[in-house]
Amino acid sequence: MNPHLAPVAVPDPALLPHVQQLCDLTDPYAFGPAEDELFAAAMAETNAWHAERSPFFRSLYEATPAATPEAPPYRTPLVHANFFKRHEVLSVPREDVELHLTSSGTTGQKSQMFFDHWTIRSAQRMVARIFERNGWITPHQDVNYLLYSYEPAPSLNLGTAFTDNYLCDFAPARSVEYALRNTGGDHEFDPFGCIAALRRFERDDAPVRILGFPAFLFFTLERMRAMGLPPLRLPEGSLVVLGGGWKGHSDRRIEKEELYARVTEQLGIPGERIRDTFGSVEHCIPYIECDHHRLHAPVWSRVTIRSTRTLEALPYGERGYLHLVSPYITSVPAQSVVMGDLASLQPGDACGCELRTPWFTVHGRAGVSRNRSCAVAAAELMKGMA
């Protein structure tokens, strides 16, 4: 068995049997009444788990109205993602924390998220299930990696850096290059190093995997064009998996369709091998585009759009706060998180791909915040580089 898909056990099988069963589902986009019933049972278990172990969540849960026929068959107390920028809340003993990740760069407020063994391994296994379904786990095929993320440093515990390095485990690395180079206490964007790596990779026979912030990839393509470099043709089987958005550099943002076209034009990677993702350190469920470039909810989560005025659930097509729910997490009461993103939701059959689960579109951040995300911190490094 692939080690990334190996079994992992919930902290207490007697208290969390349906959480275990839900997270053990092998089809990442299974959809139907049976899956909905299992999800509701798992949510009841995880709510009880956190209510017993977190005074904060217990008071919030007790103040949350019971489920109604018009609402999901489980209570979803709303916790805004910004809460975790100001508070550390745990539902497990601190000695059971296996991993501590943050959401931002070296300054500004950071979400402090803590993961026990079950939580982080369960989330990683979800990513592996989706990569497996797409045929992106290739243990016998070396690849060259270009990571548009932070080069490792001893004190670096950013969620984006952790994720991108984990994604390198799905295919053996012939070489790894980083766009954000560790300069000793800081990181600096290196566009010329990225260009040199891409030109070197073109001459190799190994596929290339480009992972990380889309803004850095765009700035690399822009620099190549400004230098008058001819288009590259990276080896067949190359793959682009982006994440992190354009926050902090919206004045230079281009639509993803244009970015994908530029990648195809300048690097020779076809559109179906270019995928965007959505995720956060507060909610580690993987949302990875289908081949029609829609962010479908996997079986382990549910997505709701909530009114920016009343927080009531909105119907398909309307814009509001993105509300993400999953019972997988046992370390922190973050099973029902309202993000600072504006989004809209559509039914699965409105996509046209083979997946049936609903999908969402992110339309940007809600309002202006002083909080800085990983992408904001990274975007600051690009000032003066384009």
Measured by DSSP, the beta-strand proportion falls in 15-25%
Helical content stands at 25-40%
Series of secondary-structure elements, N-terminal to C-terminal? HHHEHEEHEHEEHEHEHEEEEEEEH
Q: How confident is the prediction overall: mean pLDDT?
A: 88
Which stretches are low in confidence, meaning pLDDT under 50 for 5 or more residues running? 368-386
Largest sheet: 7 strands, mixed
Determine the structural class based on helices, strands and strand pairing: alpha/beta
How many β-strand runs? 15
Oligomer: single chain
Q: Give the spatial strand order of the biggest sheet.
A: 6-5-4-7-8-9-10
Overall morphology: globular
Radius of gyration, taken over Cα atoms and rounded to an integer in Å: 21 Å
Spatial gap, N to C terminus: 45 Å
Tell me the number of helical segments per DSSP (H or I, 4 or more residues long). Answer: 10
